[in-house]
Design a protein that fits this description.
This protein is of the alpha/beta class and about 280 residues long. The chain has 6 helices and 18 strands. About 20% of the residues lie in helices and about 30% in strands. The strands form 3 sheets. A 7-stranded mixed β-sheet has the order 8-5-4-3-2-1-18. The chain has a 7-stranded mixed β-sheet with strand order 9-10-13-14-15-16-17, covered by helices on one side. This is MBL fold metallo-hydrolase. One of its GO terms (molecular function) is transferase activity.
Amino acid sequence: MKITVLLENATPSSRFVAKHGLSLLLEANGARVLFDMGPDGSFLDNARTLGVDAVHVDCAVISHGHYDHGGGLRAYLEAGETAQVDAPIYVRRGAFAEHVSGTVEHHHDIGLDASLDACPRLVPTDDMRLLGRGMMLFSGVEGAWPRPSSNGRLLERRDAGLEPDPFVHEQSLLVHEGDRYLLVSGCSHAGILNIMDRAEALAGAPIDTVIAGFHLTAPSAGGVPDASSVREMARELARRPTRYATFHCTGLDAYSILRDELGERIRYLYTGSSVEL
C-alpha cells in the first residue's frame, strides 16, 4: 500500500501548494483511489508536480460534505472530461445538504457545491459499500467514545432549521491487503476511536495502520479545544496495536500531545509526502 498526500494544510517544500483541506492518492491491491479533493483544484497542480496521475484512477471518494474535502470536485470533473475519464465518485447520501460553521445566528457556508449533486459520475453510498479489491466504504458510526469537541460549531440544515451536524454524511475507507488492514478517514467527526471500533468489527481483526485527520483543532479558534481529552484519547490509541499517520484537522498542537504518548508510532504527513506500508 502507498498513500501520497496531494494536499494538506502545510508543506515543507515551496514546490507545492498547501491549503486548509485534504486530498490523498491511495494505491493498494492494484487499484488507485483518489480520497478527497481539497478545497479547489490545487491537488491536481500538486499531483503534476509530484509526477503522479490523480485523474486516471479506479474510483474517487469524498469523505464528507465539507468544502475542504470536496471543493475540488468541479476541477476534478473538468479534468476527467478532458481526459475522457468516467471513474465513479462515491459520495455519502446527504453530503450535498447545507453545512455551515458557527452558530445559528452567525455562520458561514462550508458545504459542497450543490449544483454538482446531479452529476452522473456521482454514486451515492449508504452505511456500507463494497468497492472490490479488498476495499470497503462504511459510515453510520456510533459508539461510546467522545466525538471531537470541535464538532460543536458545525451545523447542518434540516426541516427544523440549522441543528448540530450528526455527520451521517461522513464515510471512511477500510482496505484489506495481504494480512494487513488499513483505515483511512478524512476528519473523523464521529470520533476516531468509534471509527476504529467499527472498522475492527467489520474486519474481524485489529487495524494495522490508521491514516486520518482527528479533528482535534478548531480552525476558527486556531488551537486545541481540550488538551486533556486529547491526551486521554492518545493513551487509548497507544493501547491499541496500531500505527498512525495524521494531518489536516488534527493540528500541530494536538499532534505534539499525540506524539508524547505514541512516540514513533505516529507521524505527520504534509503536502507532497507519502508513506508505504
